[in-house]
Amino acid sequence: MQPPLALSIGDPAGVGPELAAAAWALSDAEGLPPFFVVGSARVVEEAARRRGITVPVCTVKTPDEVADCFAGSLPVLDLADLPYTPGEPDDAGAELALNALATATGLVRSGAASALVTGPIAKSRLARVGFTHPGQTEFVAEACGIAPENAVMMLAGPSLRVVPITVHVSLRSVPDLLTADLIRSRAAITAAALARDYGIARPRLAVAGLNPHAGEDGRMGSEDMAVVAPAIAALRDAGIDAFGPLPPDTMFHAEAREGYDVAICMYHDQALIPLKALDFDAGVNVTLGLPIVRTSPDHGTAFGIAGTGTARVGPTIAALRMAGQCAARRATA
Fold it and tell me: What is the pTM of this model?
């Protein structure tokens, strides 16, 4: 048996605690691998009660104890005895979220846990307690000794996988940030990860153009000819099955999706709009290029609905399932 998955609680005032409990309640039906929450047993218990589900909680001191109790209760590595205050984030909760993230990452790096699944955080709150990273991805990358630019975000669902080359930047700045080397590097990391963690021996990478009609031979912008096409040529020279640049508006219908394993997109919304339109309840944020497996549900803290029982558990289940599958492939490689 591989070690259990580590699920960091995220901000305890958000939807993370109740979704962790709800995922455990459905773990048998969904065929999820054993996992444990790194956070607060009290918060998880009260979140489950508020959601109206019966979730016995057992506290564990090490991941080795998870296998003995997972069938009958949700294991929690208890870091803090905090009250459950859904929708009311505070500094104590942010400190717990940061501690949980650091602890869970360390357990996965040490091999005590097989993969990391991160609950949603509030970056502005974490900044108040000393968090200096743009997000959890950069934190985990640094903890693993990986430069942030070599940690690649992929969004994956049953219908589509997408990688945005530029992520949380303004649309105005995208053309200046795109370089052939950036596209080539992130696409190459993606191809290697699909082979290693998803069992796709020769991944097919469909590369989107930046401009309408992929620039139409320079009539609608020069970036596709000057930047994107050379990156694709370099990838092909390296033996990677990459093709494009493709007109972005014709890449995502059902027939087109059958022709590739991942869409390499130039900016955030170009990638995430089709992914969320097709796989809104099953999209998973995966960090590629790390020595560990890391996934996350593709949503935020949702403070406005925390504690109401209306948050959808599908993305958390999908993140746990994908983490388990990727970890199992690495274990048998």
Answer: 0.94
The domains located in the chain, with CATH, are 5-149+290-332 (3.40.718.10), 152-276 (3.40.718.10)
Contact in structure between 285 and 298 (CB atoms under 8 Å)? yes
CA 144 from centroid of its chain's CA atoms: 16
pLDDT digits over 146-158, tens only? 998 899 999 999 9
Q: How many C-beta neighbours within 10 Å does residue 24 have?
A: 27
What distance separates the 2 farthest-apart alpha carbons in the chain?
Answer: 64
CA 119 to chain centroid: 10
Query: How many CA atoms are closer than 13 Å to the CA of 121, on its beta-carbon side?
Result: 33
Q: How many helices and strands, by DSSP H and E, does the chain display?
A: 14, 12
Instruction: Tell me if 106 sits within 8 A of 143, measured CB to CB.
Output: yes
DSSP code of 171? G
Q: Are 225 and 217 in contact (CB under 8 A)?
A: yes
Whether 207 contacts 245, CB under 8 Å: yes
